[in-house]
Every structure is written in C-alpha cells, then in structure tokens.
C-alpha cells in the first residue's frame, strides 16, 4: 500500500522486487527463472513537477532507492548462483535487468538535477572521464548541440526587429556578436539590414542572446571573450528576428524581381484574382487553381496512386536540396484515416466525397540557411522539366501574420504534391515560440466573436507569459491588427470584453474603414 506521506509512487519498485523474489522461489523449486518485467519509474518525475519544494528530498531518495535496488539485485543473483552452482553469464537476464534498472535510475536522477537546478552527478563507480558506448553517445549528442566556438566581437543593445520591419518592436534587447572560428552556412558577416553591427569574416558571424553561450544575466561578457555557441539556443525567437538575421527587408527585396517573374508564370487569371479580392479573400492563404489529382472514385484508389509515385518525388526533392545547399525533409504519406477525415470535411456534397481533391497526401520541405540559397532552390524547381508548378505563393514578400515561406503546389508524374521552401530560422520560430503568436491571434479572434471575456483574458495572459521578450510587441500587434478585436467587441456591446482588451493595451483610438472608433461603435449598432 502506498505511503500517503510519500511524494512519489513506490508501488512499481515494490512490484519489481516482488517479481525478483518470485523468480528466486521458482528457481528453488527447479523451474527455469523467467525474466521479470522492469516497471517504469516515471511516476517519480511527475510527482517532482507537482511538488517542487521536495526536490532536494526526492534527489536523496532516488539515490537511496538506486543503492537499495542494486543491493537486492546483487543478493538475489548471488543466491541463484549458489543454487545453480554456476557463475552467471555476462549477459544473463539479471545482468540485463540490472543494467536497465541502473540506466533508468540514472536518467531519473538527471531529470531531478535539471529541475532542481543542480549539475548532474556522475553515476556511482564511474570515473571522471567515463568510458564505453554510453559515454560515446553522450559525447556525440553534446557535439550535435554545439554550433561552434568563437570570439565575442560585440556586446550591446540592438532593436533588430525594427531593423527587419518598419513596424517592428521599439524595445532594444541585449545581443552578443560572435565571430566563429570556422565558416558556417547559417552565419553572416556582422551586417544586419545594411547596418554593420560588428566586423568579421563572411559566414563567420552570429548575433545571439546570452543563453546561446551559457551566460546568465549576472555573468559578465566582454569583447575578446572565448565562448562556445549552442545550436538550438542560437536560433531566433520571433519571426521579425528570423527575417533580420537573414538580412532583413533590404536583402529580401533583392529577390523580389525573381519572385514576381516566377509568380507571373503560375498566377491565376486576372478575373479570378479580382473576384477573390472583391470577396475580401487573400491569395496568399488560399488555393486559387484547380490543382486536383486525376479522378479516382475511392480513397483507397487515390492512396495507391500516391504510393506508387512518392519515391520518385522524394528522390527529386532530395536532389534539388543537394544542388542548392538545402536540407530535404521528406515525411511519410499522410495517414489514410486523416485523409479520409479531411476529404469528408472539406470535399463532401450530396453526390459523395471528392477524394481526388486532396493535394497534401505527399508533401516535402527544403530548409535553407540563407535567402539566396532558398530562392536558388525556387529557380531550380521552376526550371525543372519534370516538375510542373501549379501554384506558387511567396509568403516571404507577402507574409501571413509575420510567418513566411515559399509555398508551391506541384505536379510530377501526374501526382499533385505540396512543396515548401523555407529558412531554418523561420521554421524554428514556427515550430517553437513564434508560432504561438499565430495561435494567440486565431484563438482570440474566435473568442471575441463569441463575446467570451474570460476566455479572451486567458488567451492573452497565456500569450504574455509564453511569447518571451517580444510579448508586449506581439500582443499589441495582435490587438491592433486588421481584424480589430477591440472594434468587434465594442460593436457587440461586450463591456467586460472591452475592459479585458484595454488591460492588454488595445488601442482605444483605433478606427474602422469609416473612421469610427470603439466608442462610436458601442453607441450605435453598425451592421
């Protein structure tokens, strides 16, 4: 029975020991000892997260638990050896159990140390350097996390978001400029948006936050210091930062002519563009062409059609990535159940389901370190005789709520697939903190439409905590963007909702297309 005072569940441990004892009893009776099942000890980690004040005590108890279990295993193994009169083989069942148990306890101890702010302790009996395959794999992981070593060339406050876009944040943030010892494709020359921040060799410069070099705010950083840059922490945290680190609008405009030329080849007819614009629809967010698969009467038929052609498409994407200094990300086909569900939701009518209208069963992405490489990839695809571009949207020049990519719908061997080109920094922001801004906007607009003040507060409060250094800027942009949540709330007469939006710095003087403010719209009902 679990001890009610215990900060985590010891039942799996007791079950494990009971299995060991049963094994010993069966061996005493002459039966072959079955291998006990090692129960996971993940409950301790969950309890740790729920009881942060017990971290130190949990660390001690984990160490005691590891020592106790190790002793029990050794004792039971010794008794079995005496009964059988043989020495255990190096890889018998109990040796494997002991190794697995030791590994799991070590992992849990490492997580405890990480959450409690302590440095991980080496396992008992290990030397300082460590040997064996586990040490080698740890070294490989450590090497993979390091981008490179270099010298600090700049320490100061820079507003790179305003450098990237005129409407960028006005808050200056501390940045560290580093010249790497070795050239990196993701590095630059110390110049951002035409402004020289520091001097370094081409493709050797990085502009990073303190965390990327393992420095806390209390630690000093000076020009000339030698530092090591961590790969994941060197990535941007907002879309504006990602664009600026690529060279900003000034660099982006250098590819505008190429983009317009390619877009003109695949743009929808002028009449369709005008119709969409009259209806207030944005071309960059919607498909505007008949980019269907060949007609198939069933989902199974559509799926088999894609399966037969996917390999050739994947190979061509990898070849293009290799030719243009990119990295091909080629996922598996979209799951059959997901395809059926999407088609039933989007393409069903009284006549049935149009499965052949699905265009993203096969898709791929190519990631680049620079705008030049990305647009080179676009040009290569444009010139490829085996690939037909059906639709092309340049969302770098026409961004979608700050997010940018090159979005293509292509046909190869009769199969329509989606192909996306992007830069690593932009994709990283989408995958991590930056995409949260889009999530906040989407949820906020929906809750304003419903008039739910509490939900709106919860969404904005979550955004304030999760959007990091740019939270104020991102929330202000969301509250005052063309969707105009404040005006919608006022029009619906939602006084409490208006109060919530004002608490998060919504602009009370914001006007609609008829120059009406929130006060005007709250006084009268404007359809």
Description:
The protein is an alpha+beta fold and 527 residues long. It has four domains: 11-125, no CATH class; 144-234, SH3 type barrels; 252-425, Beta Polymerase, domain 2; 433-523, Alpha Horseshoe (Serine Threonine Protein Phosphatase 5, Tetratricopeptide repeat), CATH 1.25.40.20. Helices cover 47% and strands 13% of the residues. The chain is built from 20 helices and 13 strands. It has helices spanning 11-28, 43-50, 55-84, 93-116, 132-145, 160-164, 239-245, 248-252, 256-266, 270-278, 299-323, 336-346, 371-383, 424-431, 434-450, 453-466, 471-479, 485-491, 495-503, 518-523; strands at residues 146-158, 173-180, 191-192, 195-196, 205-208, 226-230, 327-329, 348-349, 352-353, 363-368, 388-394, 406-412, 415-423. The strands form four sheets. A five-stranded mixed beta sheet has the order 7-10-13-12-11. The protein has a four-stranded antiparallel beta sheet with strand order 5-2-1-6. Strand 8 (348-349) and strand 9 (352-353) form a beta hairpin. Helix 7 (239-245) runs antiparallel to helix 14. The longest helix has 30 residues, at 55-84. It is globular and about 90 Å long. The chain starts with 10 loop residues before the first helix and ends with a helix.
Question: What's this entry about, in short?
Answer:
With 527 residues, this protein is of the alpha+beta class. The chain is 47% helix and 13% strand.
Question: How many separate helices?
Answer: 20
Determine the strand fraction and express it as a percent band.
Answer: 5-15%
Question: Strands of the biggest beta sheet: in what spatial order?
Answer: 7-10-13-12-11
Envelope shape: globular
């Amino acid at each position: 029975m679990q001890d009610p005072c215990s900060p985590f569940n010891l039942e799996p441990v007791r079950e494990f020991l009971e299995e060991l004892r049963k094994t010993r009893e069966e061996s005493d009776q002459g039966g072959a000892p079955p291998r006990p099942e090692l129960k996971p000890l993940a409950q301790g980690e969950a309890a740790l997260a729920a009881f942060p004040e017990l971290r130190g005590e949990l660390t001690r108890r984990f160490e005691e638990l590891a020592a106790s279990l190790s002793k029990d295993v050794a004792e039971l193994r010794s008794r079995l050896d005496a009964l059988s009169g043989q020495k255990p083989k190096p890889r018998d069942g109990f040796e494997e159990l002991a190794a697995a148990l030791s590994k799991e306890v070590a992992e849990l101890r490492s997580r405890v140390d990480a959450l409690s702010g302590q440095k991980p302790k080496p396992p008992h009996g290990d030397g300082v350097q460590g040997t064996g395959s586990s040490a080698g794999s740890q070294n490989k992981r450590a090497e993979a996390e390091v981008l490179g070593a270099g010298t600090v060339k700049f320490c100061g406050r820079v507003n790179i978001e305003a450098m990237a876009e005129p409407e960028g944040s006005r808050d200056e943030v501390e940045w560290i400029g580093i010249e790497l010892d070795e050239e990196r494709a993701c590095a630059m020359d110390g110049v951002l948006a035409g402004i020289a921040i520091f001097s370094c060799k081409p493709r050797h410069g990085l502009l990073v936050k303190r965390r990327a070099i393992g420095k806390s705010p209390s630690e000093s950083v000076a020009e000339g210091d030698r530092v090591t840059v961590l790969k994941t922490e060197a990535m941007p945290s907002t879309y504006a930062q990602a664009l600026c680190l690529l060279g900003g609008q000034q660099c982006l405009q250098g590819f505008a002519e190429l983009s317009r030329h390619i877009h003109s080849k695949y743009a929808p007819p002028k009449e369709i563009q005008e119709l969409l614009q009259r209806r207030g629809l944005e071309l960059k967010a919607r498909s505007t062409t008949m980019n269907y698969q060949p007609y198939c009467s069933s989902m199974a038929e559509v799926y088999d059609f894609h399966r037969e052609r996917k390999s050739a498409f994947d190979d061509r994407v990898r070849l293009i990535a290799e030719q243009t200094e990119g990295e091909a990300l080629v996922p598996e086909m979209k799951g059959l159940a997901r395809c059926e569900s999407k088609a039933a939701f989007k393409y069903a009518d009284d006549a049935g389901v149009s499965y052949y209208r699905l265009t993203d069963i096969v898709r791929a992405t190519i990631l680049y370190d620079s705008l030049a490489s990305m647009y080179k990839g676009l040009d290569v695809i444009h010139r490829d005789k085996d690939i037909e571009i059906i639709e092309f949207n340049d969302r770098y020049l026409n961004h979608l709520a700050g997010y940018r990519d090159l979005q293509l719908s292509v046909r190869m061997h009769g199969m329509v697939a989606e192909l996306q080109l992007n830069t690593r920094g932009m994709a990283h922001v989408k995958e991590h903190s930056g995409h949260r801004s889009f999530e906040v906007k989407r949820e906020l607009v929906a809750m304003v439409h419903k008039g739910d003040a509490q939900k709106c507060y919860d969404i904005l409060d979550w955004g304030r905590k999760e959007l990091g250094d740019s939270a104020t800027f991102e929330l202000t942009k969301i509250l005052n963007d063309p969707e105009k949540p404040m005006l919608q709330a006022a029009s619906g007469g939602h006084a409490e909702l208006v109060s919530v939006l004002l608490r998060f710095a919504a602009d009370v003087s914001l006007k609609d297309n008829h120059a009406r403010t929130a006060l005007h719209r709250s006084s009268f009902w404007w359809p």
